[in-house]
Predict the structure.
Amino acid sequence: MKNHYFIRSVKVLAISLLALIVINLISNFFYHRFDLTEEKRYTLTSSTKKLLNGLDGKIDVEVYLSGKDLPAGIKILQNETRELLQEFRTNSKGLVTFHFFDYNSIKDQKKREDFQMELVKKGLRPTNLEVKSENGYTEKLVFPGAIIKANGREIPVQILENQFSVGAQGSLNNSINFLEYKLANSIQKITKDHPTKIAFLQGHGELGIEPLQEFLKALSEQNFILDKVELDKDKLLNNNIDILLIAKPQTALNDYEKFLIDQYIMGGGKTLWLLDNVICDLDSFKLAPSIVAIPRDLNLDDLLFRYGVRAEHNLVLDLYCNQIPIIESVGGNPQPKLFPWVFYPVSVNKKNHPIVKNLDPVAFKFVSSLDTLNNPNVKKTILLSSSSYSRMQQTPFQIFLEGAKQKPNPYLFNQKDIPMAVLLEGEFSSLYKNQFTADLQKLLAIQNVTFKPKSNLNKMIVIADGDIASNDLDAKGVPLALGYDKYSRQVFANKDFLLNCVEYLVDDNNLIDARNREVKMRLLDKAKVLEQKTKWQIATFAFPLLLILIFGFIYSYRRKRKYAR
């Protein structure tokens, strides 16, 4: 009898082992991960999968979310990053590799500091975190980012969002939401045979290198090729320019220049317009107590009108605004004091478009309004607009600096959601399709292209403020971070907004769909945890032990009855 049970047990064990081996062999050829989460947080978007499946070279990701005594939020982000990179590795058939590196493991302090400086130069921003220790709280410097390496190039990825408008928990949620997009987008850029080329229009008083320094630096860090183009000297058409960036021209463009831009757009070129349609500058108050805001004629109204938007020659005034310093005498000593300046609107994102989703407020200076027009072939999406307490002021208009000290009448600010940045997508019609003269034909012949009366599917973004891309300077003339206001010491999302605009314009694979992901952080209710702590301790520890005892008793009882016969 005993031999019979022994042989049967050996057979069951052998069959089980054989089944396990077969399942493992099959799983090597047929991999599938079952994502049972409500929002499919562990399932990559189809565009990301397509990108990873199409890789033909190795990608290495070095992550710096590592170290001892990290706060709980950073550990959550660390785990999410590791799990996502594991998915990237699987879908790329091992071409994406990753490792976590703790720079604190470098014992030599000088070498460790040099390594930190290298990370900053590469574009990673450090963050000071409060870490709980035995002696209270201490500060810990971390670099919550990664460096993606391939083809002898490197791209930094800032994993942790640092958004003052949503707090620490909101920043953590957004960091997890945007993680797939950031990594996939960086991989796409670093594997391109020809990096995206952005040309800045020059020759009409546009912003130069100094005010654009931080924006240029941010674009360069993201592997974009930067160039400039003067339409009377350089070739715009057939020059492999992916984006033409027009940053605050101050003099009018002539018809030949407009024609070249029009045909660039008809040929599929993307355009980012940063326009100041009103002549107005805060520095003018250094010379006089008041200034007159007057319209600026850029000779672009008919061109933009044809594409589907009207750029007005007015000013948007908003009660939700930034501040400016005005000198006041306090006890006989002149001191600067901050006052709200309604001519500097701050736009809080209200849209769910990937460009602006979960974006911090964006700061404007003397911004005009935009009006979208009825054009069935072009889809218009308002990206940024004014608050619910705003109004439009027609120009010419006299502005007094002392007016900032007076409390504005809220009843006058009775307009809302005035458009200030608009995305246009669709098939654009040429302004010149019915006025293609012999002179224009010669102009195209010089650049060796044929006239196009209509574009294929294309996109452009129009922003009614040229200074949105301009960085301030400190007292020594050193450029400050783009979006940082030296008076209020707030960091606005100007840089992130502009980078998102550029990324969206050149994203032909819809990778930005991953930016629309919504991962819900299901946190414990702290009040309930304290109130029901004992009950759940019993439920999680005592109840499983009780079940094991009951199972053991039943198993022992049945075994005794079976062998007692």
About this structure: The chain has a mean pLDDT of 85. The chain has two domains: 31-190, 194-492. The chain has twelve helices and 23 strands. Residues 12 and 18 are 10 Å apart (CA to CA).
